[in-house]
Design goal:
Layout (H helix, E strand, L loop, with lengths): L6 H14 L11 E2 L11 H22 L9 E6 L5 H18 L2 E6 L4 H14 L3 E4 L7 H11 L3 E4 L5 H10 L3 E5 L2 H13 L13 E7 L5 H16 L4 E8 L4 H15 L5 E4 L2 H13 L9 E3 L5 H8 L5 E4 L2 H16 L7 E3 L3 E4 L1
Parallel strand pairs: 2-3, 2-4, 4-5, 5-6, 6-12, 7-8, 7-9, 9-10
Antiparallel strand pairs: 1-12, 11-13
Helix pairs in contact: 1-2, 2-12, 3-12, 4-5, 7-8, 9-10
The structure holds beta-D-galactopyranose.
Length: 366
């Protein structure tokens, strides 16, 4: 088994983090094992950022413990991303590569699946024939997980699946058959619930026209993704659980894409006009598109319409500060990428890991 020089680097990193943070080890909820439910979270952007930093600090500390002994040979890591042209996954993959190289001195190759599962399957086969030590996989289609996990297992290469959650049955199979595979992500139900709670926290609980119900537009990501399914379901469920009546005016897929978010919102506003009180976007990219459509119609966010997203992209948090978006939910790419990296290194060194790791979401409002 290959080993990598990292202990020294990792401890240097932890020392410098400790120095920056005054040496205080703060509590963090991320990363952590699956099972815990969504909990109340701080509302301020500052707190969200602080929490993400704490998560990063904690994963760096964990990395030190996980760091393999040095023998001068670099670990080879293949990373497959479903497509490079995705705002959130761009932040994620850049941080993942940086962290793996800087903390573990790993040799990392990241490839673009271009939204095509067949192309990505070839890329995975190539990595396997190159003899990588571990694969980190953001599949184009989560439904391909079982096939891909079997291919990796047959080749004796551990696999860390990220971002697109596989079926529970597949995770159980890994557990019962002792497959060297794991999933690192976040519980999308929590992000949906937080979106709904942000609307409940507005002055009129989303019922701007006072007709006794919240009439909304739903911008759906890629409907094959659990993230899109759960955010769609749980954002609305937070309202109905609080006894608020809802009316769905419009719900269409926008594939996580800003231009599509703009187009769909423009269509919804053309069709339903002032009836639209809330726009739920499954992610910030689509919400940023929605802002353009809302403003083009002369509507005013937080006055005659509410708009929420997920991810906490810089552009979205800036829009919240400027009153052009009601809120978002931090999708912690730092915590997730660091956890994925730490777990990948452990697996490359033959350690047994859990079948699932999740990182908390955090509400972000003005
Ligand atoms: C989600 C994220 C989206 C998009 C998607 C890709 O978690 O919120 O913006 O990146 O993953 O699967």
């Amino acid at each position: 088994m290959k080993k990598v020089l990292a202990a020294v680097l990792a401890s240097m990193m932890v020392l410098s983090l400790a120095a920056c943070g005054g040496g205080d080890k703060k509590e963090t909820e991320a990363p952590k094992k699956e099972t815990e439910k969504a909990t109340e979270a701080p509302k301020e952007t500052e707190k969200a950022t602080e929490k993400a930093t704490d998560a990063a600090k904690e994963t760096a500390e964990k990395a030190t413990q996980a760091a393999p002994a040095a023998d001068g040979e670099k670990l080879k890591i293949g990373v497959c991303i479903y497509k490079f042209d995705d705002n959130f996954m761009t932040l994620y993959r850049q941080e993942l590569q940086k962290y793996l190289e800087e903390t573990y001195g790993a040799e990392v190759t990241v490839v673009d699946g271009k939204g095509d599962q067949a192309e990505q399957t070839n890329q995975i086969d190539n990595f396997i024939s190159q003899g990588v030590d571990v694969l980190i996989l953001n599949l184009v289609q989560a439904s391909a997980t079982e096939t891909v996990a079997k291919t990796c297992a047959d080749a004796g290469i551990p696999a860390v699946f990220i971002n697109r959650e596989p079926d529970a049955a597949e995770l159980e199979r890994w557990e019962s058959e002792g497959v060297a595979a794991t999933y690192v992500g976040a519980d999308a139900r929590q992000s949906g619930t937080f979106q709904g709670e942000i609307i409940l926290d507005t002055a009129n609980k989303g019922d701007i026209n006072g007709d006794g119900k919240v009439s909304y537009v739903m911008l759906i990501g890629d409907p094959e993704n659990v993230d899109a399914q759960y955010r769609t379901e749980f954002s609305v469920k937070a309202l109905t659980d609080a006894g608020v009546e809802v009316e769905e005016l419009f719900a269409q897929r926008g594939d996580w894409d800003q231009a599509k978010g703009q187009e769909l919102t423009a269509n919804a506003l053309a069709q339903f006009g002032d009836q639209v009180e809330v726009v739920f976007a499954n992610n910030d990219a689509m919400a940023l598109g929605a802002i353009e459509a809302i403003e083009a119609e002369g509507r005013k966010v937080n006055e005659d319409i509410y708009l929420v997203g997920v991810d906490a992209l810089d552009e979205a948090t800036a829009a919240i500060k400027d009153g052009r978006m009601t809120g978002t939910v931090l999708n912690d790419h730092m915590g997730q990428s660091h956890t994925a990296a730490d777990v990948a290194i452990k697996m490359a060194n033959g350690e047994k890991v859990d079948t699932k790791y999740t990182v908390d979401y955090v509400k972000v409002t003005e």
